[in-house]
Structure formats: structure tokens, C-alpha cells
Amino acid sequence: MPPLVRRLPEGSVALVTGASRGIGRAMACALAEAGAHCILVARTVGGLERTDDLIAARHGDAGDRTAQRATLLPMDLTDGAALDLLGPSVMARFGRLDILVHCAATLGVLTPVTHMDVAAWQDCLALNTTAAWRLIRTTAPLLEGAAHGRAVFLTDAHACVPAPFWGMVAASRAAQDALVRTWACEIPATSGLRVNLFDPGIVATRMRRQAMPGGDPAPLPRPEQVARQIVPLCLPGEMRHGQRIVAMPVVQQG
Q1: In whole angstroms, what is the distance from residue 72 CA to residue 92 CA?
Q2: Which of 66, 104, 114, 118 is packed most tightly, with the most Cβ within 10 A?
């Protein structure tokens, strides 16, 4: 895959959730390639370290801390108290935040609405909805203060189109989307901040394997291909705001 040619302004700082695997990992690598210092957030330390290794290998900065492209931040996004401190912590460490890409999510349990388990329902809402709200609240002051603040929240087609057994994902994502778009409406027209939703479609990720264990991942887009469609939404020249953007189809080479 050819390298990115679009670059972020010098000193840009990006926060990527779900950065231990899948689209989150690919997004962190793509933003680092575009010139950002990436704050990698996920629960799994080993996964974050793997992402960090990939970034370091691509930029040849192993052992050179002056060229460090990533900061690892192991965190459970359902821990509200810890998440509330994220924005102030980023401010104390970096003094800025230019980009937020929220990729972390959970599938929940695929089951009829009438069979939903209370604990599974609450867990799904905690990560897919409440965490997004807390992220908005804790990072908004930094993003609004950036010259070209950009925030992208991954979503799912089920938020708009219902399907049997996908009620947990549908409800939690629809609620997240409403919060994000409402926030976008509240941002003054004079602000440089742009906030959008991005629906990656069906991608070859672990979550997809969990949902459809018998499916063939070969024809599906790879996370790296999807990430390259998200990067433009993080650039200073992106003017779309409050929109739901759907990934363009990717044709896999045989």
C-alpha cells in the first residue's frame, strides 16, 4: 500500500481509542505516518505495545525517544472517573489536542430484544454510548482550542437500519450518534472544530469474526484500507461538520 502524502501540521497530537487492534490500530499508524504524535488508548497493554512497535518500525525511531510517535495510555473507557481525567492529563502532558478518533466499541450480544441480559445491555451502553459522551466532555476544551480541531466517531449501519438480533449495537450506536451530532450543532460557527461520524461498513476485524464466525474475511476491506479513508477527516482542510460519512467500497485484489 502506498504511503500517505497528506501531512498534518507540525506538532499535531491525536488521541485514538481502541488502538490495540483493528481500525483503531490502523488509524493510529496512519495518523503517525501523517505526522501526528498519537496517544494510544485501550485496555490491553500488550495490544498497545504491538501498535507502538508498528509505529516505531515504520518510522525507524526504535531507541530514539526524540522521534517518538506514540504515547501508550492503558485505560478502561467504562471507568468514568478515569476517563474524566483524560482531557486534563493530555493538557498537562502535551498542552494541546488536535484530533480525536473514537474507535473503541463492543458488539454486545446478538440476541432478540426480548432476551437481552441486563448486565450485557449495561456493558454495551457503557462503552458504545456513555464513554463517547465522557470523551466529548473531557476533550472538548482542548479540541475547541485547537486551530483545526477534528473529532471522528466510528458508528455502525445498524444505528440507522434495524436488523434482527442487533438491538444492543443499534440502540447504543444510535444514542452515540445523536450525542455527537448534537454536540456538532452546539459548536459555534466561528470555531475551527469539525466533528463527524464515520461508518466503516463491514471490515475484516475481530468484532466481525465474533459476529459472523463462519464468514469469509477475504473479500472484506482491511482496517488499513478503511483508516486511509478516515485520515482526510482529520486534516485541516476538511470542512464537513456534523455529518455521517460512509466508507467508499474497497475492491480486494484477487
Answers
A1: 15
A2: 104
Residues of the chain with pLDDT under 70: 1-6, 60-67, 204, 211-212, 251-254
pLDDT tens profile 50-62? 999 999 998 755 4
Residue 63 has a pLDDT of: 46
HSE toward the beta carbon, residue 38, CA cutoff 13 A: 33
- Lookup: cell for 248: 467508499
- pLDDT value of residue 69: 86
38 φ, ψ (degrees, to nearest 5) = -105, 130
What percent of the chain lies above the pLDDT cut of 70?
91
Instruction: Answer yes or no: are the C-beta atoms of 13 and 31 closer than 8 Å.
Output: no
Show the domains of the chain with their CATH numbers: 13-246 (3.40.50.720)
Q: 3-state SS string over 28-90?
A: HHHHHHCCCEEEEEECCHHHHHHHHHHHHHHHCCCCCHHHCCEEEEECCCCCHHHHHCHHHHH
Place of cell 446478538: 110
Quickly count: other Cβ atoms within 10 Å of residue 24's Cβ. 28
CA proximity to 199, closest of 247, 146, 250, 241: 247
* Three-state DSSP string of 139-152: HHHHHHHCCCCEEE
* Single pTM value for the model: 0.92
For residues 230 and 138, what is the distance between their CA atoms, to the nearest angstrom?
Answer: 22
The region, left, alpha or beta by phi > 0 then psi within -120 to 50, assigned to residue 162 is beta
Yes or no: say if 203 and 223 are a contact pair by the CB < 8 Å rule: yes
**What's the confidence (pLDDT) of residue 207?**
74
